[in-house]
Amino acid sequence: MIEGIDMYVTPLRAFVFALLMLPLTLLAETNAKTVSDLQHDWANANYELTGDKQDAAFEALIERADAAVASNPDSAELLIWNGIIKSSYAGVKGGLGALGLAKDARNSLEKALKLDDKALDGSAYTSLGTLYSNVPGWPVGFGNDKKAVQLLEKALEINPDGIDSNYFYADYLLQHKEFDKAEKYLLKAQSAPPRPDRPVADAGRQEEIHAALSLARGKIQHSGS
After folding, report:
1. Per-residue model confidence as pLDDT tens digits over 127-183
2. How many Å apart are CA 128 and CA 33, to the nearest integer?
3. What is the C-alpha separation between 102 and 85, in angstroms, rounded?
4. Chain centre distance of CA 203
5. Which of 3, 22, 185, 190 could make a disulfide contact with 170, Cβ separation 3.0–4.6 Å?
6. Handedness of CA 53, 54, 55, 61 (dihedral sign)
7. Would you call 115 exposed, middle or buried from its count of C-beta atoms within 10 A (0-12, 13-18, 19+)?
8. What is the CATH number of the domain that holds 121?
9. Quick one: 116 and 203 in the same domain?
Protein backbone atom coordinates (compact mmCIF):
# COMPACT_ATOMS: atom_id res chain seq x y z
CA MET A 1 0.00 0.00 0.00
CA ILE A 2 2.79 2.42 0.94
CA GLU A 3 4.67 1.55 -2.22
CA GLY A 4 1.54 2.30 -4.23
CA ILE A 5 1.20 5.72 -2.58
CA ASP A 6 4.86 6.51 -3.24
CA MET A 7 4.48 5.56 -6.87
CA TYR A 8 1.50 7.92 -7.16
CA VAL A 9 2.93 10.85 -5.20
CA THR A 10 6.21 11.04 -7.09
CA PRO A 11 4.62 11.57 -10.53
CA LEU A 12 2.11 13.93 -8.95
CA ARG A 13 4.88 16.08 -7.53
CA ALA A 14 6.60 16.11 -10.90
CA PHE A 15 3.36 17.19 -12.57
CA VAL A 16 2.79 19.99 -10.05
CA PHE A 17 6.40 21.17 -10.51
CA ALA A 18 5.92 21.18 -14.28
CA LEU A 19 2.78 23.30 -13.88
CA LEU A 20 4.64 25.77 -11.68
CA MET A 21 7.47 26.02 -14.20
CA LEU A 22 5.14 26.46 -17.18
CA PRO A 23 4.66 30.25 -16.76
CA LEU A 24 8.44 30.73 -16.59
CA THR A 25 8.92 28.67 -19.74
CA LEU A 26 6.24 30.61 -21.59
CA LEU A 27 7.76 33.90 -20.39
CA ALA A 28 11.21 32.86 -21.64
CA GLU A 29 9.76 31.91 -25.02
CA THR A 30 7.83 35.18 -25.23
CA ASN A 31 10.94 37.19 -24.38
CA ALA A 32 12.99 35.32 -26.98
CA LYS A 33 10.37 36.06 -29.64
CA THR A 34 10.24 39.73 -28.62
CA VAL A 35 14.03 40.02 -28.76
CA SER A 36 14.07 38.37 -32.19
CA ASP A 37 11.40 40.77 -33.48
CA LEU A 38 13.24 43.80 -32.10
CA GLN A 39 16.51 42.62 -33.67
CA HIS A 40 14.86 42.15 -37.05
CA ASP A 41 13.04 45.48 -37.04
CA TRP A 42 16.08 47.35 -35.71
CA ALA A 43 18.16 46.04 -38.62
CA ASN A 44 15.49 47.21 -41.03
CA ALA A 45 15.31 50.68 -39.45
CA ASN A 46 19.08 51.04 -39.10
CA TYR A 47 20.21 49.77 -42.49
CA GLU A 48 17.31 49.89 -44.93
CA LEU A 49 15.44 53.11 -44.12
CA THR A 50 16.33 56.79 -44.26
CA GLY A 51 14.77 60.15 -43.49
CA ASP A 52 11.28 60.38 -42.06
CA LYS A 53 10.63 56.66 -42.53
CA GLN A 54 13.68 55.84 -40.44
CA ASP A 55 12.65 58.29 -37.71
CA ALA A 56 9.14 56.82 -37.58
CA ALA A 57 10.48 53.27 -37.46
CA PHE A 58 12.85 54.05 -34.59
CA GLU A 59 10.20 55.89 -32.62
CA ALA A 60 7.85 52.90 -32.97
CA LEU A 61 10.67 50.56 -31.96
CA ILE A 62 11.37 52.59 -28.83
CA GLU A 63 7.73 52.37 -27.80
CA ARG A 64 7.79 48.60 -28.25
CA ALA A 65 11.10 48.20 -26.44
CA ASP A 66 9.90 50.32 -23.51
CA ALA A 67 6.68 48.29 -23.28
CA ALA A 68 8.64 45.02 -23.37
CA VAL A 69 10.91 46.14 -20.53
CA ALA A 70 7.95 47.41 -18.51
CA SER A 71 6.35 43.96 -18.82
CA ASN A 72 9.54 42.15 -17.84
CA PRO A 73 12.05 44.48 -16.15
CA ASP A 74 14.31 41.59 -15.12
CA SER A 75 15.15 40.52 -18.67
CA ALA A 76 18.75 41.48 -19.46
CA GLU A 77 18.16 40.68 -23.13
CA LEU A 78 15.21 43.07 -23.43
CA LEU A 79 17.12 45.79 -21.58
CA ILE A 80 20.06 45.35 -23.95
CA TRP A 81 17.87 45.79 -26.99
CA ASN A 82 16.14 48.73 -25.38
CA GLY A 83 19.58 50.30 -25.04
CA ILE A 84 20.74 49.37 -28.54
CA ILE A 85 17.64 50.83 -30.18
CA LYS A 86 17.87 54.09 -28.25
CA SER A 87 21.60 54.49 -28.78
CA SER A 88 21.22 53.78 -32.51
CA TYR A 89 18.49 56.39 -32.83
CA ALA A 90 20.65 58.84 -30.89
CA GLY A 91 23.32 58.29 -33.53
CA VAL A 92 20.83 58.90 -36.31
CA LYS A 93 19.49 62.11 -34.73
CA GLY A 94 22.86 63.48 -33.68
CA GLY A 95 23.53 66.72 -31.81
CA LEU A 96 22.48 67.69 -28.32
CA GLY A 97 18.91 66.59 -29.00
CA ALA A 98 20.13 62.98 -28.97
CA LEU A 99 21.66 63.22 -25.50
CA GLY A 100 18.45 62.24 -23.71
CA LEU A 101 18.21 59.08 -25.80
CA ALA A 102 21.86 58.29 -25.07
CA LYS A 103 21.29 58.66 -21.33
CA ASP A 104 18.23 56.40 -21.46
CA ALA A 105 20.26 53.84 -23.41
CA ARG A 106 23.03 53.98 -20.83
CA ASN A 107 20.55 53.35 -18.01
CA SER A 108 19.08 50.32 -19.77
CA LEU A 109 22.49 48.84 -20.54
CA GLU A 110 23.77 49.37 -17.00
CA LYS A 111 20.68 47.60 -15.63
CA ALA A 112 21.31 44.72 -18.05
CA LEU A 113 24.90 44.38 -16.83
CA LYS A 114 23.71 44.09 -13.23
CA LEU A 115 21.25 41.34 -14.16
CA ASP A 116 23.49 39.29 -16.46
CA ASP A 117 26.63 40.81 -17.93
CA LYS A 118 27.13 37.87 -20.30
CA ALA A 119 23.65 38.05 -21.83
CA LEU A 120 23.69 38.09 -25.66
CA ASP A 121 27.44 37.39 -25.61
CA GLY A 122 28.26 40.48 -23.58
CA SER A 123 26.45 42.87 -25.93
CA ALA A 124 25.74 45.30 -23.10
CA TYR A 125 29.49 45.92 -22.73
CA THR A 126 29.84 46.54 -26.49
CA SER A 127 26.94 48.97 -26.69
CA LEU A 128 27.78 50.79 -23.47
CA GLY A 129 31.42 51.12 -24.49
CA THR A 130 30.36 52.58 -27.82
CA LEU A 131 28.15 55.10 -26.05
CA TYR A 132 30.97 56.25 -23.79
CA SER A 133 33.20 56.51 -26.86
CA ASN A 134 30.82 58.61 -28.98
CA VAL A 135 28.88 60.78 -26.53
CA PRO A 136 30.51 64.16 -25.76
CA GLY A 137 32.36 64.37 -22.46
CA TRP A 138 31.68 66.56 -19.45
CA PRO A 139 30.14 69.11 -19.08
CA VAL A 140 27.93 68.39 -22.11
CA GLY A 141 27.58 64.61 -21.80
CA PHE A 142 28.93 61.53 -20.08
CA GLY A 143 31.49 60.44 -22.69
CA ASN A 144 34.67 58.96 -21.24
CA ASP A 145 37.43 57.30 -23.27
CA LYS A 146 38.85 55.40 -20.30
CA LYS A 147 35.48 53.80 -19.52
CA ALA A 148 34.87 53.18 -23.22
CA VAL A 149 38.00 51.12 -23.75
CA GLN A 150 37.48 49.16 -20.52
CA LEU A 151 33.97 48.19 -21.59
CA LEU A 152 34.93 47.38 -25.17
CA GLU A 153 37.84 45.20 -24.03
CA LYS A 154 35.52 43.38 -21.62
CA ALA A 155 33.15 42.71 -24.53
CA LEU A 156 36.03 41.19 -26.49
CA GLU A 157 36.97 39.05 -23.51
CA ILE A 158 33.46 37.58 -23.45
CA ASN A 159 33.01 37.34 -27.23
CA PRO A 160 36.46 37.38 -28.87
CA ASP A 161 35.24 36.28 -32.31
CA GLY A 162 32.04 38.32 -32.58
CA ILE A 163 31.40 40.69 -35.45
CA ASP A 164 30.12 43.52 -33.24
CA SER A 165 32.64 43.21 -30.41
CA ASN A 166 35.54 43.38 -32.88
CA TYR A 167 34.03 46.07 -35.10
CA PHE A 168 33.22 48.51 -32.30
CA TYR A 169 36.61 48.05 -30.66
CA ALA A 170 38.19 48.75 -34.05
CA ASP A 171 35.98 51.81 -34.44
CA TYR A 172 37.27 53.12 -31.11
CA LEU A 173 40.86 52.52 -32.28
CA LEU A 174 40.18 54.37 -35.54
CA GLN A 175 38.90 57.37 -33.63
CA HIS A 176 42.18 57.40 -31.70
CA LYS A 177 44.31 57.00 -34.84
CA GLU A 178 45.58 53.51 -33.98
CA PHE A 179 45.16 52.41 -37.58
CA ASP A 180 47.35 49.28 -37.60
CA LYS A 181 45.65 47.89 -34.54
CA ALA A 182 42.23 48.84 -35.90
CA GLU A 183 42.90 46.93 -39.11
CA LYS A 184 43.61 43.77 -37.11
CA TYR A 185 40.27 43.87 -35.35
CA LEU A 186 38.38 44.87 -38.50
CA LEU A 187 39.75 41.81 -40.28
CA LYS A 188 38.62 39.67 -37.37
CA ALA A 189 35.17 41.25 -37.52
CA GLN A 190 35.06 40.66 -41.26
CA SER A 191 35.71 36.93 -40.79
CA ALA A 192 33.27 36.50 -37.90
CA PRO A 193 30.81 33.60 -38.24
CA PRO A 194 27.58 34.69 -39.94
CA ARG A 195 24.39 34.84 -37.89
CA PRO A 196 21.77 32.93 -39.90
CA ASP A 197 18.89 34.62 -38.08
CA ARG A 198 20.27 38.15 -38.69
CA PRO A 199 21.19 38.45 -42.38
CA VAL A 200 20.26 42.14 -42.73
CA ALA A 201 22.26 43.13 -39.66
CA ASP A 202 25.28 41.13 -40.84
CA ALA A 203 25.14 42.61 -44.34
CA GLY A 204 24.90 46.15 -42.96
CA ARG A 205 27.72 45.60 -40.51
CA GLN A 206 29.94 44.11 -43.22
CA GLU A 207 29.46 47.26 -45.30
CA GLU A 208 30.57 49.33 -42.31
CA ILE A 209 33.58 47.06 -41.81
CA HIS A 210 34.54 47.42 -45.48
CA ALA A 211 34.38 51.22 -45.25
CA ALA A 212 36.39 51.24 -42.01
CA LEU A 213 39.04 48.95 -43.51
CA SER A 214 39.41 51.27 -46.49
CA LEU A 215 39.90 54.19 -44.13
CA ALA A 216 42.41 52.35 -41.93
CA ARG A 217 44.45 51.09 -44.87
CA GLY A 218 44.45 54.50 -46.51
CA LYS A 219 45.84 56.04 -43.31
CA ILE A 220 48.41 53.27 -42.94
CA GLN A 221 49.56 53.71 -46.54
CA HIS A 222 49.75 57.47 -46.17
CA SER A 223 51.82 57.25 -42.99
CA GLY A 224 54.24 54.85 -44.66
CA SER A 225 54.73 56.90 -47.81
Report:
1. 999 999 999 999 889 999 999 999 999 999 999 999 999 999 999 999 999 999 999
2. 24
3. 10
4. 16
5. 185
6. positive
7. middle
8. 1.25.40.10
9. no
